[in-house]
Amino acid sequence: MLRVDVIDQRIISQLVADARSSYAEIGKAVSLSAPAVKRRVDRLLETGVLRGFTAVVNPEALGWGTEAFVEVHCQGNVSPDRIRQRLEPLPEVVAAYTVSGSADAIVHLRAANIHHLEDALERLRAVDMVSRTVSTVVLSTLLERPPAPEPG
Asked: For the HTH asnC-type domain, which residue ranges apply (predicted)?
């Protein structure tokens, strides 16, 4: 596991709250100089603790308001890499996970509407290694948050 101290955790918390914060603003919150914060952020990026900075987009505002989680069951023993390769070309797949249990993977789909979702599901089912799927359509999001850098 990568070593992250309390100050790193506080810096990460500041970045999660607002990734556009300046090093000076973060430094003020964590009692460090801006150059010291920059060095720590650079190290967190180099070690992979931070993977980058991004904008958080509301998918509904872009016309992708329908979503589902789909259990994917594969024929035979299929490697996670092969599953990923087959799912990558499908633009509606926003995330995919290997899981324990009877399914080989769980796929998160986003679509413009229920008809688009149905089309995406049909294309997912047509992937050569997929034997069956079990879909759950999301009605509403109750809670969605980034990982908390501070334990507890």
From this structure: 4-65
Kind and range of the H or E element at 74?
A: strand 66-74
Residue 83 sits in the same domain as residue 33: no
Number of domains in the chain: 2
Q: What is the pLDDT of residue 64?
A: 93
In a domain, 143, yes or no: no
Q: What is the CATH number of the domain that holds 121?
A: 3.30.70.920
Q: Give the separation between CA 12 and CA 147, rounded to whole angstroms.
A: 10
The whole-angstrom separation of Cα 114 and Cα 66 is: 7
Residue length, the chain? 152
* Structural tokens at position 141: 């999001």
The pTM of this model reads 0.78
